[in-house]
Design goal:
With 488 residues, this protein is of the alpha/beta class. The chain is built from 24 helices and 16 strands. 44% of the residues lie in helices and 13% in strands. The strands form six sheets. A five-stranded parallel beta sheet has the order 4-7-10-1-11, covered by helices on one side. A three-stranded antiparallel beta sheet has the order 14-16-15.
Length: 488
């Protein structure tokens, strides 16, 4: 379709003005009636956040997405452009994307008055109608709304009372667009106050100018709960002017968390060829995130972002790829000891309370991994604590052969960079380990057997049946009481 280049052509084509709220409503209505998805790749919000978001759009509301870190708030806001028309016309050369039938700027009005139907028209694509600003304490009113530009006044010999000396901020320049302010509480209260008129009346005022410029915008804010952020809060009058406040949340099941992590994890073709993942390890990573959210060492108010599990999975894949390259293998199965490689992903993404700071980030990370192993272990193998409470029977002695092997003074070292053959050889040394895994996991594929064998050793260590020590190169297992007696 040929796009009009002048106002006359635009009128002949039957163009009618509509606000951005009308535009979003009409396109959403069309999609809902056709049962088309508006927001994709946002798992777990189908029956909660997304319906609330769609209701807010149909209501023509400004929106505040309130939730902890890593809850897809910005991702949702960015997908809102899908509800915009592909192109909209504006008066060419105007800073504020003036509607050809309803110009708001001095330049747009002047051009329309002088040129009439010959006013040049340009077209704005929907992707250009999304503006995002991260709120920081140093943001000023001039940055957001505008101020008098003395340089312009001098160069063009204009009075400071002339509207043309105004230098527009980022908000007027985003007229007829979706404008997103991330981390709204970080804006100073006096800056938040400057937004009152825009949200309530839809216009701006600059300095002492009498002009009131009506803006056509869809505002979306994101914020963490007030009881989390120590940097500031949303002032009550501004909160009152925001039409809908929508609460986001973390995934409500491990399966959903795994799906999100798998979707968001960055990988490449080369890595996919050499990495053999297992659902057990994916479950352990998500369980570790759950343990972090409930940990006494982690600040619950700050939340634990979904980015933690995504970064952890990426580091895990890279650890396996590195081992394959070192050993010149074709591929390698993930190991429980590979979880040591995700510690850098944990330490930078959790906010610790005082006790956590005293414990140290590395120790807290190891503790969280250990708790995840402990929680998942009993979903696959007999609970060692319950076995201790029963009388000695064949069932209660399920782990007896394994622990007895270590009681004879044996130790087992699993080095992180060792080849799969060396890894299997070490695990096969432990009496009864392979036999018990074969008995309890009869459906396990041969390539998975050694993963389950190692998982059993880690689980027994977490239940104080064995001693586990972190080495620079890997992990060491030995008899618990023997290591305590040898402790100096």
């Amino acid at each position: 379709m040929k796009l009009a280049t002048t106002l006359g052509e635009l009128k002949k084509a039957g163009y009618k003005s509509q606000t951005i709220h009308q535009e979003l409503k009409n396109n959403l209505r069309a999609k809902l009636s056709k049962k088309e998805q508006v927001f994709t790749g946002i798992l777990g919000y189908e029956n909660s956040v997304i319906p609330d978001f769609e209701r807010a759009i149909l209501s023509g509301h400004s929106i505040n997405l309130l939730g902890l870190r890593g809850q897809a708030k910005t991702k949702m806001a960015r997908q809102l452009t899908r509800l915009l028309d592909e192109y909209i016309p504006y008066i060419a050369g105007t800073e504020t994307n003036d509607d050809p039938l309803n110009p708001i700027s001095y330049g747009g009005k002047k051009m329309l008055a002088e040129l009439g139907n010959e006013t040049p028209i340009a077209w704005l694509h929907r992707d250009e109608r999304y503006v995002e600003k991260l709120a920081t304490p140093d943001v000023s009113v001039a940055d957001l709304i505008g101020d008098v530009d003395p340089i312009k006044a001098i160069n063009e010999k204009l009075s400071y009372n002339d509207e043309r000396v105004i230098h527009f901020g980022i908000i007027p320049r985003a007229n007829r667009s979706i404008f997103v302010i991330n981390e709204l509480p970080d804006l100073q209260p006096r800056i938040q106050v400057a937004l009152f008129n825009i949200l309530q009346e839809g216009d701006i005022q600059i300095r002492g100018f009498k002009m009131r410029m009506p803006l056509d915008m869809q505002f979306v804010f994101t914020a963490n709960p007030e009881d989390y952020t120590n940097r500031g809060s949303i002032v009550t009058p501004l909160k009152d002017r925001i039409g809908s406040q929508i609460l986001t949340h973390y995934p409500k099941s491990i399966e959903l968390s795994k799906a999100i992590t798998a979707q968001e994890t960055q990988s490449d073709e080369q890595k996919d060829k050499v990495v053999v993942m297992h659902d057990l390890v994916a479950t352990l990573i998500e369980q570790m995130v759950i343990e972090a959210r409930n940990s006494e060492y982690v600040d619950a108010k700050s939340g634990v972002s979904a980015r933690l599990s995504i970064s952890a999975m990426e580091n895990l894949h890279s650890s396996i790829e590195r081992r394959v390259l070192i050993n010149k293998d074709t591929k390698s199965m993930v190991r429980i000891s590979d979880l040591n490689s995700i510690i850098p992903s944990i330490t930078g993404k959790i906010e610790m309370v005082y006790e956590g700071e005293q414990e140290g980030p590395y120790n807290v990370a190891n503790l969280l991994i250990g708790k995840a192993i402990r929680s998942v272990f009993v979903q696959h193998f007999p609970n060692p604590e319950r076995l201790k409470k029963k009388k000695e029977t064949e069932d209660t002695g399920a782990y007896a052969r394994i622990t007895e092997w270590f009681e004879r003074g044996k130790t087992l070292e699993l080095l992180q960079d060792c080849s799969d053959k060396a890894y299997a050889r070490e695990l096969n040394k432990v009496d009864g380990l392979a036999a018990l895994v074969e008995e309890l996991k009869p459906d396990a594929k041969p390539i998975e057997r050694h993963l389950w064998m190692e998982f059993m050793l880690h689980g027994l260590a977490e239940y104080s049946k064995l001693s586990k020590n972190q080495l620079d190169e890997g992990v060491e297992f030995k008899d618990l009481f023997g290591s305590m007696l040898n402790f100096e």
